[in-house]
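user: can you give me the structure for this one chain? C-alpha cells are fine.
assistant: on it. calling the predictor now.
[tool input]
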Amino acid sequence: MALQKGDKAPNFTLFNSDKQAVSLSDLAGKNVIIHFFPAAFTGVCTEQLCNMRDNINYYTNLNATVLGISVDSPFTLGKFKAEQNYNFDLLSDFNKNTIKDFGVYRENFVFGMNGVANRAAFVIDKEGVVQHAEVLDNPGNLPDFSAIKSTLEGL
C-alpha cells in the first residue's frame, strides 16, 4: 500500500546521476517533492520531469528540493538528465527498495518490463511527514501539479 498523507516518509539513500549518494535524511529542514517515474526517455516521464524543471524557481522559493526517482541506472539517468537539462537530482532505485517502501512498485509495465515505479508524486514536509501523496494507476497520466503547488504553499 502506498504511503498516505500523515505517514512518516521512510529514509533512503540512492545514487544520483553524478554517482553521489543522496539521503532523504540529509534534506531534513526542507520540503521535498519526490517524483517517481517508470522509465527514462519515455514521453510522459519526460513531460512530468520537464514540468518540474521549468518551474524549479517556484519550488526553490518555497524551500523545496525536487527529486526524481526511477529504477534506471545512474548512468542512464545521467544521459537523460543531460539531454533534458534537468536542474534537480535524478536518483537510481535500481534495487527497487525505495519504490517498495513508498508503495509505488509496479509489477507489470509495457513490453513485458516488470518491476518499475508507478508514476507518483509525494510532498514531504520539513519534519519528514508526507503532506501530499498521489499514485497514478495509469502511467499515461500526469500528477496533479496544482495540488503539489497548493500543498507546498500551505506548509
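assistant: here you go. The beta strands are 13-16, 21-23, 31-36, 64-70, 89-92, 105-108, 114-117, 120-124, 130-135. Helices lie at 43-54, 56-61, 74-84, 97-101, 145-153.
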